[in-house]
């Protein structure tokens, strides 16, 4: 659990009742409401930027002091907020980063955007939420709106957050307002930024839902109000269960197509020509990042308390987690055809981030593939314009520039992350063997490389 340097301070509910809802609604509407966003990572910082650009004065709260110092210097830590945009907000007074939780005392709206990882046992780790809530409750004031955005198991808002506020003598929907609104940010996606993605909101009471919806309408065009926080929590989990299961289907389908000597992507593209009843998903080296490998496990874990065993979720996880092993087999097959083995082979890995356009390596399948190749004796180099350095098996590796010498000196070029900055045509010309896990070499003409694809 993170150390938040908790300070003892007493707070108590108001003795005189007044219409806090209408007062807060007025401050939200005229953008005079003070906003604190706890957690300044890939979710919290873009939200802070959007509300700051809308004219709200925002404080980004984070326990990482180095991060706070960088943010106050205008150094963004996410691809969705540029340094220039952050510095402009900072200089204009609409954004400030801080690690001092006492700022919660004088705020109107509090967004909680802290990490919710899994433990090694696959149980939800909500220690960051709990530590944050201790500080929120410590400085809680009447008339505040508190919204949890961190992905979590269904029931968290009602079973964990609400009792902590009630223990202080507050009543949700009367003198404090509590809601859940799942984060939907897709880092690096320039087509769908924060302002382009509808927000789902479910409050403890209708008044809580209405205030949360009003708040988000200041930065997004569409807000979907649901009947409870539990519905909003489940909506987020279902979104990523849907993705996990369909990616697993595409991954297993690619293995079947390989046995049948058919290009799986050509089949999927043909199926996608159907204008209804079909949504294309494509195979890859596995799943990674902060959502798809983790969120389905939250739902699966919760269902165990109802004596219900989820079936699709663990099956999809099994298939997706097996894909790095299949990639290693594909590399081995390609090298064997040239009378080479993985042991001693020079393998150039293209991309190590978990997806295109970002520098995030959390749960990246590329890392799992490379670690397996290292254990088998491969000599690894890698290139990634977004990841300058990685540590693997006790050694540190630096990203290399893809010169013609680098490309031609490898025994196998392994495409793991399809960043748009790469010159795939040059790869086809200079690399002798390409193992393509992302379908990037389809349509690339003029090269002499032997290409194996998922």
The CATH topology label of the domain at 20-227 is Rossmann fold
Task: Tell me, rounded to a whole number, the average pLDDT.
Answer: 93
- Low-confidence segments, ≥5 residues, pLDDT <50? 1-17
- SSE order, as H and E? HEHEHHEEHEHEEHEHHHHEHEEEHEHEE
Q: What is the helix tally?
A: 14
Helix content class: 25-40%
Biggest pleated sheet = 8 strands, mixed
Number of strands: 15
CATH class of the domain at 20-227: Alpha Beta
Percent strand equals 5-15%
Look at the helices and sheets and give the structural class. alpha/beta
CATH architecture identity of the domain at 20-227: 3-Layer(aba) Sandwich
| Assembly state (oligomeric) | single chain
Structural commentary:
The protein has 454 residues and is an alpha/beta fold. Among the domains are: 208 residues, NAD(P)-binding Rossmann-like Domain (Rossmann fold, 3-Layer(aba) Sandwich); 78 residues, N-(1-d-carboxylethyl)-l-norvaline Dehydrogenase, domain 2. The protein is built from 14 helices and 15 strands. It has an eight-stranded mixed beta sheet with strand order 3-2-1-4-5-6-7-8, sandwiched between helices. Strands 10-9-13-14-15 form a five-stranded parallel beta sheet, with helices on one face. Strand 5, helix 6 and strand 6 form a beta-alpha-beta unit. The longest helix is centred in the middle third of the chain and has 31 residues. The radius of gyration is 24 Å and the shape is elongated. The two termini are 40 Å apart.
Q: How would the blueprint of this fold be written?
A:
Layout: H1 20-29, E1 34-38, H2 44-53, E2 57-61, H3 65-72, H4 83-92, E3 95-98, E4 109-112, H5 127-138, E5 144-148, H6 156-166, E6 176-180, E7 199-203, H7 206-216, E8 223-225, H8 229-259, H9 264-271, H10 295-303, H11 312-337, E9 346-350, H12 365-375, E10 379-383, E11 389-392, E12 395-398, H13 404-408, E13 412-415, H14 424-430, E14 433-436, E15 450-453
Parallel strand pairs: 1-2, 1-4, 2-3, 4-5, 5-6, 7-8, 9-10, 9-13, 13-14, 14-15
Antiparallel strand pairs: 6-7, 11-12
């Amino acid at each position: 659990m993170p150390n938040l340097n908790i300070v003892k301070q007493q707070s108590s509910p108001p003795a005189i009742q007044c219409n806090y809802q209408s007062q807060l609604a007025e401050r939200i509407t005229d953008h005079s409401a003070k906003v604190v966003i706890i957690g300044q990572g890939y979710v919290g910082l873009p939200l802070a930027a959007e509300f700051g650009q809308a004219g709200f004065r925002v404080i980004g709260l984070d326990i990482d002091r180095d991060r706070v110092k960088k943010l106050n210097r205008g150094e963004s830590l996410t691809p969705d907020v540029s340094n220039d945009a952050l510095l402009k907000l900072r200089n204009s007074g609409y954004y400030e980063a801080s690690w001092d939780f006492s700022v919660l005392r004088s705020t109107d709206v509090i967004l909680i955007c802290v990490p919710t990882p899994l433990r090694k046992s696959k149980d939800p780790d909500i220690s960051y939420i709990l530590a944050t809530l201790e500080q929120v409750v410590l400085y809680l004031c009447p008339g505040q709106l508190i919204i949890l955005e961190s992905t979590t198991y269904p029931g968290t808002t009602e079973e964990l957050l609400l009792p902590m506020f009630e223990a202080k003598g507050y009543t949700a929907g009367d003198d404090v307002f509590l809601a859940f609104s799942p984060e939907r940010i897709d880092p690096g996606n320039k087509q769908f930024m924060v302002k382009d993605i509808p927000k789902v909101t479910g409050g403890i009471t209708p008044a809580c839902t209405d205030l949360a919806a009003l708040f988000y309408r200041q930065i997004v065009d569409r807000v979907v109000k649901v009947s409870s926080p539990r519905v909003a929590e489940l909506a987020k989990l279902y979104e990523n269960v849907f993705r996990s299961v369909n990616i697993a289907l595409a991954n297993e389908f690619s293995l079947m197509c390989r046995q049948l000597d058919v290009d799986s992507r050509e089949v999927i593209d043909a199926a996608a020509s159907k204008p209804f009843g079909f949504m294309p998903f494509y195979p890859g080296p596995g799943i990674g990042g902060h959502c798809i490998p983790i969120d389905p496990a939250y739902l699966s874990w919760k269902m165990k308390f109802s004596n219900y065993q989820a079936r699709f979720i663990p099956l999809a996880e099994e298939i997706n987690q097996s894909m790095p092993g299949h990639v290693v087999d594909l590399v081995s097959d390609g090298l064997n055809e040239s009378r080479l083995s993985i042991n001693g082979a020079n393998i150039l890995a293209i991309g190590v981030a978990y997806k295109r356009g970002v520098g995030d390596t959390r749960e990246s399948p590329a890392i799992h593939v490379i670690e397996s190749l290292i254990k088998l004796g491969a000599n690894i180099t890698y290139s990634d314009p977004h990841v300058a350095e990685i540590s693997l098996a006790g050694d540190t590796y630096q990203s290399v520039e893809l010169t013609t010498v680098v490309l031609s000196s490898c025994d196998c070029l392994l495409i793991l992350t399809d960043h748009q900055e790469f010159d795939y045509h040059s790869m086809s010309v200079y690399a002798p063997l390409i193992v393509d896990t992302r379908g990037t070499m389809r349509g690339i003409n003029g090269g002499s490389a032997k290409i194996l694809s998922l």
